[in-house]
Amino acid sequence: MRIMDILLIFIPITLVLNFVGADSTVIFVSSLLAILPLAAKMGEATEELAKIYGGQIGGLLNATFGNAAELIIALLAINKGLIELVKASIAGSIIGNLLFVFGLSLFFGGLKFKEQKFSTHLAGMNSTMLLIAFMSIMIPSLFHFVPAEHRNEDEHILSLCVSILMISIYTLSMVFSLKTHQYLFRTKEDGEKAQWSRNFAIGVLVVSTILLGIISEVFVGQIEHVAENFGLTELFIGAIIVAVVGNAAEHLAAVFFALKNDLDLSVNVTVGSSLQIAMFVAPLTVIAGTLMGKGMDLVFTPFEVIAVFASVLIVNEISTDGRCNWFEGAQLVIMYLIIAVLFFFVR
Fold first, then answer.
1. DSSP state of 81
2. In sequence order, what are the residues at sequence separation of 6 or more whose Cβ sits closer than 8 angstroms to the Cβ of residue 287?
3. What is the number of domains present in the chain?
4. pLDDT band at residue 26, thresholds of 50, 70 and 90?
5. Who contacts 145 (Cβ-Cβ below 8 Å, separation ≥6)?
């Protein structure tokens, strides 16, 4: 963690470089290095809160604060009319958390522990919710292929209705897992005491989230220039670069929890983050886009839909028995890299 503390110096450096109008590539790299330690601080604060409140709420807090930057980036991009970039980042975040981050967690955790276990109740509910999330995304995307003279404005209205219903089911899932049936998801406690106070941990989360939002805005502002210089596609930018950096908090925290043999919390962070993006962040961008008059919807490209479906299917298959090992993690990461290569070549 000492290295991450040193990297905090890139926060003011990034702001200064952006203020003086330095080269886009330099600002891009600096903002990336600034995001990493902020993500680490968020993971550290979340672990402390998990000791105080329990793993389920700790994972929820990490996903929520991690996705706050994702939501801020999306809203700023929508306001600039970058609708397709936002959709790509949403799809990429879902895919990245399910395959890349969860895969890295299983891989590194599996190298340290021969076999790791997590709650079957948690896996079961997540599997169902992932399928609902995929179907919710697929329905407006399929409707897009209805002849234009028949769908008219119905495409956007359908996306808006689906968005409201997705937020409703996500809210109900939180009530179920955190309130009415919390006992199904309670994990064994190891008796480890929190080193931070509750208020200090919450303060670190809040400050880190605000700074992450500011730095992320600088980061996104340079992406188009960097992409033009290196010949990257809009789909690759949104689905891979923006998604990976925007969810850096989950990346580091999930692997950290897996290395401590706390797979339940790691699953809460990775799969929980994907669910929150699909069933809360994405619908919220549709509602916000409607209020802004920007026409944001849930119509994704066939490549994005297929990639999300493959991610959901593979993760559901791996998580059914509540056991995992390093090879399963390697499978997820390799699948993610295959999708990333696909997105790189799609023009």
1. T
2. 160, 163, 164
3. 1
4. very high
5. none
